[in-house]
Amino acid sequence: MTDNPDAARPPRSRRRGSGRRALLAALATACLPLSACTAAGGDTSGAAAPAPGASAGNSAMDIALPQAILNLPLEDSSGHPAALSSFKGKILVINDVMTLCQETCPLDTADLVQAARAVQKAGLGDRVEFLSITIDPQRDTTAQLAAYRRLYAPAPADWAILTGPAQDLATLWHNFGVWIQKVPEGAVPAKNWLTGAPLTYDLNHSDDVFFIDGDGHEQTLLDGPAHVEQGTALPSALRSFLNDNGRQNLDHPGGDAWTTQQALQIVSGLVHKPIPLS
C-alpha cells in the first residue's frame, strides 16, 4: 500500500522539495532542456537520455550518507552480505519496496528493472547498482525476495533486492525520510502471491527512489508511483496481485508519476554518459 493522504506524516526535513521538484531543479540548474524528460505517456522506446553537465548531479542535494548508514548489515536475496559500503565507488539507485505491496511497488520495481537493463546494455552495469530494499523484513525473507527477483528472469545483474534486521532497516529508512505505517489488512485479506497465505497486516508507505553518487552522497530523488509505459515488463504474478488502487495507478497514472526515462536522465548525469532506453 502507498501513503495515505489522510494519515499524519512526518515532515521530510532533510529533503529540498518533492522528488519531482528536486528533479526539475537539478535539470534547470544544469541548464538542461526539460524536453529531455519525456512527458508521461510519450513514446520513449529507443530514446537516449542525454548526458547532463558535470554539475547536474550536485545541484539538488549533495548530502553525505553517514558511515553508520553505509555499514548497516544488509543482505541480498541469496543471503550474501550487502552493506551499502560494499558498493563503494558505484552510483546507487535505491528504492523502498515490499514484495506484498498491491498499489505502487510493482510499478516502481518494473520501471527500475527496465532502467537497470538499459544501464547494463549501455555497458555501465559495473558503475551503477540498483537496490530495492525492503520495508517489510518480517515477510520479505530471502526466499520471498529471491522469488520476487525471479519474476524478472533473466534479472539484470546490476539489480539486487536487499533485506536486513528490522531495527537496522528502520534506521536506514528513517535516515532517508521514508514514511512507513503498519495498518490492519482489509476485511477480505489478500493472499501472498508466492505462498497463498492470507495477509495479516499492510504497510502504508511513501514511494521514493534515491540517487547516490560514487562518493556516497545523495544527489536527488524521485517520489510517488511510477508510470509503467508500454513495453515495460510487469510480471503477470504482480499484475494480478494489484488491488483496485494499484490497477488505477497502472492504467491511469497521475501527471506527477515518474518514468524510466527520468530515472535514466539522472543516472546519465551521474555517469556523464547518455543511456539509451531500449
TrEMBL record:
Coiled coil: none annotated. The keyword Transcription regulation does not apply. Cu cation binds at C101, C105. Keywords: Copper, Disulfide bond, Metal-binding, Signal. Disulfide bonds join C101-C105. It comes from the Bacteria. Residues 1-36 form the signal peptide. The keyword Cytoplasm does not apply. One of its GO terms (molecular function) is metal ion binding. InterPro entries: SCO1/SenC (IPR003782), Thioredoxin-like_sf (IPR036249). Belongs to the SCO1/2 family. This is SCO family protein.
